[in-house]
């Protein structure tokens, strides 16, 4: 762990968090982060090992970055990837100010005085100068040829709410970082999870005492890389010059066959028969067990068939109560089936590592343990307890009460731990678990037990913390710890540096995001983050208030506190049945894997089958499964090992195919002042 690696890594944090808004929202290029395989970060790594290190070696060999340094630099930047886009800032500021705007447009909100239910510190303060603070955010304060000064942003309106939200966010993220250190040894050393993306990153790094990686001298790697890159670069040029270039299609259209599968068609699965092929997914599928790829690939088809079968008898698995966009925060069987599956997998994770986790817990409180536990895990457990207690205390003080705050935090831990586990075990870099703590607690206790104020607080917490979890901290940290372990970099000190990277990233990205939003106006931002997410919490609360009024229980529900809530609890029976079904399916799948050698499925099927990412990636996972199965069957382990560089090249080529157009688009914008045409490689 060298000083220059730390400085360069933190500079990378500044660069990513500083430029992300421009790339995603002004240049409209492939997201720099976008998921848990951020093309900007891995693309920079490829450039460093292919171009920078050989150049430094020619100038002075002492300047060459070794594998440990590059691993640490990569890990620090990955830790900050949860900040600048969907992980937080894509929806953070709009969720805190635009409810004031929509309350002016929605008579139902005004009638129910729904804004007043939210604690004042949870929203930006528009009382001093509404025209500048609110209208300036909506319409923009800048003019066509004049950008505003940094001091023109009404920072005073954000002081109170940022002082409330940032401690909540930081305590949660620091708790998750500490927890990842605790989980790491069990997953990496005891259960031997594959960590496919850590393996990919390690394959690019130079060996000890070398300038470049042996992988870069392998012809198959370059065949895979250049083939995929040239396809994407051709399509980028065809987007920019449609009259002179021809697009190379990446999709397979089999929709003519949809009539053969009526249940799948009725369940909305027609689009599954027209998949876009992603080389990155095929590459990842090659490095995970075959049952993982098969399960992710067939999952959406099975879910569509199940939805279609139930719909035939007039029963919907996908519709719920509440008018929120896409039913995100509503009670519905789909959400609780996913929650149940995640709860089942979480239980299995704890059971499999029970001796290790118990030893860590005992050592953390000063008692002895049966197993040898490293000091990093012990301190990780202590810091996790400290930060998680602070997180729960903040939720309790804002109006949830400690009982509900503990329930909310418990579901949140299930969410993040299982998401990290899925990433380490399957390499599913684009993942949205699609169950939320606020909805889980709502389904378990019922609206009458919680009351509208507590529900609004939970809804707002969810829209801020994890409404779009495609770029979550836990998978980034889990993957980084494995890479650092391979390269023998101290994990405890690295985890502390992750905290520094997170704080630095916030200090850079948050002011810049607010500046651009006030300069350009949120209307020039993406519709989902500006139009739908800020209304979710309040639309759902209006629906809850109307339901409680119709039942004549609004006053009673609003008055309940503490343990009295549990006396009035009324779980949603349909949701509880779906929860039990999801948990049972996941546990039965685990049992099949443990008791038989022929079992063909992995529990990830039930964690992801009803979520959006596998619906987009299923075709690529099935193609990857077919290729690996064929290679292993007819070529054996020798051919499988020999072809690894080719599939590493598929991943590198797609990453590079996204990064190079972004660089070209940025240069075009700097020269002409005009944004380039939109071009995306990975799913939005």
What are the defining features of this structure?
single chain; 684 residues; mainly alpha
Describe this structure in words.
The chain is mainly α and 684 residues long. 52% of the residues are buried. α8 crosses α21 (473-486), α12 crosses α28 and α17 packs across α21 (473-486). It is built from 29 helices and no strands. Mean pLDDT is 91; it is low at 322-326. The protein has helices at 3-27, 39-59, 67-80, 92-105, 107-112, 114-117, 130-139, 159-190, 196-204, 219-240, 262-266, 279-286, 290-312, 333-352, 354-364, 375-400, 402-426, 437-445, 447-450, 452-465, 473-486, 491-520, 527-551, 554-559, 564-567, 573-595, 604-608, 612-642, 644-672.
């Amino acid at each position: 762990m060298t000083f220059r690696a730390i400085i360069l890594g933190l500079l990378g944090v500044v660069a990513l968090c500083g430029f992300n808004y421009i790339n995603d929202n002004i240049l409209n290029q492939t997201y720099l982060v976008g998921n848990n395989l951020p093309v900007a970060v891995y693309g920079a790594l490829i450039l460093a090992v292919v171009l920078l290190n050989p150049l430094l070696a020619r100038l002075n060999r002492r300047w060459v970055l070794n594998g440990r340094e590059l691993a640490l630099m990569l890990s620090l930047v990955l830790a900050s990837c949860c900040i600048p886009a969907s992980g937080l800032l894509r929806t953070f500021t709009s969720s805190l100010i635009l409810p004031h705007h929509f309350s002016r447009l929605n008579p139902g909100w005004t009638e129910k005085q729904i804004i007043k239910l939210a604690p004042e510190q949870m929203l930006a303060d528009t009382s001093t100068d509404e025209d500048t603070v609110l209208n300036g955010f909506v319409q923009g304060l800048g003019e066509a040829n004049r950008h505003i000064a940094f001091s023109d942003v009404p920072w005073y309106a954000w002081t109170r709410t940022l002082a409330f939200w940032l401690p909540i966010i930081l305590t949660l993220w620091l708790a998750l970082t500490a927890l990842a250190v605790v989980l790491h040894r069990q997953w990496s050393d005891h259960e031997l999870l594959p960590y496919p993306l850590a393996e990919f990153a390690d394959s690019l790094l130079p060996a000890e005492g070398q300038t470049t990686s042996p992988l870069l001298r392998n012809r198959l790697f370059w065949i895979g890389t250049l083939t995929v890159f040239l396809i994407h670069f051709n399509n980028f040029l065809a987007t920019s010059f449609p009259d002179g270039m021809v697009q190379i299609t990446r999709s397979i259209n089999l929709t003519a066959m949809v009539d053969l599968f009526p249940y799948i068609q009725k369940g909305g699965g027609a689009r599954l028969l027209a998949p876009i092929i992603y080389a990155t997914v095929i590459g990842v599928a090659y490095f995970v067990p075959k049952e993982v790829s098969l399960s992710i690939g067939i999952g959406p088809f099975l879910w569509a068939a199940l939805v279609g079968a139930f719909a035939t008898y007039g029963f919907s698995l996908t519709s719920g109560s509440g008018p929120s966009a896409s039913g995100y925060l509503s009670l519905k069987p789909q959400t609780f089936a996913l929650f149940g599956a995640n709860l089942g997998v979480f239980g299995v994770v704890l059971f499999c590592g029970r001796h290790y986790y118990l030893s860590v817990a005992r050592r953390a409180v000063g008692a002895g343990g049966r197993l040898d536990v490293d000091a990093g895990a012990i301190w990780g457990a202590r810091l996790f307890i400290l930060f998680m207690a602070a997180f729960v205390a903040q939720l309790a003080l804002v109006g949830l009460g400690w009982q509900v705050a503990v329930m909310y935090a418990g579901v949140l831990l299930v969410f993040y731990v299982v998401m990290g586990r899925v990433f380490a075990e399957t390499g599913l870099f684009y993942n949205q678990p699609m169950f939320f703590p606020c909805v889980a607690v709502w389904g378990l206790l019922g609206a009458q037990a919680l009351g509208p104020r507590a529900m609004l607080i939970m809804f707002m917490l969810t829209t801020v913390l994890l409404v779009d979890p495609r770029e979550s901290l836990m998978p980034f940290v889990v993957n980084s710890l494995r890479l650092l372990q391979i390269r023998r970099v101290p994990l405890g000190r690295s985890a502390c540096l992750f905290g520094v990277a997170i704080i630095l990233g916030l200090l850079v990205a948050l002011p810049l995001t607010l500046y651009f939003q006030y300069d350009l106006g949120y209307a020039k931002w993406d519709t989902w983050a500006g139009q739908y997410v800020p209304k979710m919490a309040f639309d759902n609360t209006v629906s809850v208030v109307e339901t409680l009024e119709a039942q004549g229980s609004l006053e009673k529900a609003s008055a309940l506190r503490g343990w009295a809530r549990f006396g009035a609890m009324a779980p949603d029976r349909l949701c509880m049945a779906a929860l039990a079904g999801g948990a049972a399916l996941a546990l039965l799948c685990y049992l099949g894997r443990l008791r038989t050698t022929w079992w063909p499925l992995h529990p990830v099927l039930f964690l992801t089958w009803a979520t959006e990412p596998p619906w987009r990636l299923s075709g690529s996972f099935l193609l990857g499964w077919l290729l690996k199965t064929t290679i292993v069957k007819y070529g054996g382990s020798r051919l499988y090992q020999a072809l690894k560089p080719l599939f590493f090249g598929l991943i590198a080529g797609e990453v590079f195919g996204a990064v190079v157009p972004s660089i070209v688009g940025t240069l075009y914008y700097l020269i002409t002042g005009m944004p380039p045409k939109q071009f995306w490689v990975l799913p939005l």
